[in-house]
Design goal:
With 156 residues, the protein is mainly alpha-helical. The protein has one domain (2-154). It has helices at 8-11, 15-37, 44-69, 91-119, 125-154. Helix 2 packs across helix 3, helix 3 (44-69) packs across helix 4 (91-119) and helix 4 (91-119) runs antiparallel to helix 5.
Length: 156
């Protein structure tokens, strides 16, 4: 469990990080499909498009992060850092982290809305946009709860 007290930049390059990211993409794909189809079953075209948009947004986020801060907080789906890197008692550091987190989330959602809007033509752009936002909020909440719980509560 010591690996969970490290930044996502290191964690993402390990098998456990890839499994975690894969599970979040699958979760988001299911949510998108269910939100758009609204009936029984799933739309596998929507699920595939959602997976593509997640991979593109993750790659773009990682590239932008490397340009901006040399990859210190590797943005894949969320900027995961540990208590070693962010002192939650220092309000200035915490504010910077929260600002970065919000920017990463909004950037991810923006990229995914555009890609999903282009790839998913069977539904209205408005419906695709709403579903993308809902899927990202849910996947961010679950992912962050899992990772930040380990990073800040159990390893200080």
């Amino acid at each position: 469990m010591l690996l969970l007290n490290t930044s996502f930049g290191k964690y993402a390059s390990m098998p456990m990080g890839w499994v975690f990211m894969f599970l979040l993409v699958v979760l988001e794909a299911f949510i998108m499909s269910k939100a758009l189809k609204k009936q029984r079953g799933y739309d596998f075209g929507v699920m595939a498009s959602t997976a593509v948009s997640n991979v593109v947004s993750g790659a773009l986020g990682a590239y932008i992060s490397k340009l901006i801060d040399h990859g210190w907080m590797l943005v894949v789906w969320f900027p995961w850092v540990s208590s070693i890197e962010v002192d939650t008692v220092d309000t200035e550091t915490l504010f910077s982290f929260v600002l970065y987190f919000v920017a990463a989330f909004l950037g991810t959602v923006f990229v995914e809305i555009i890609i999903n809007g282009v790839l998913i033509r069977r539904y209205s752009f408005k419906d695709v946009m709403k579903s993308t936002i809902v899927a990202n909020v849910i996947s961010y909440m679950i992912g962050c709860l899992a990772l930040y719980t380990y990073s800040f509560l159990f390893y200080d």
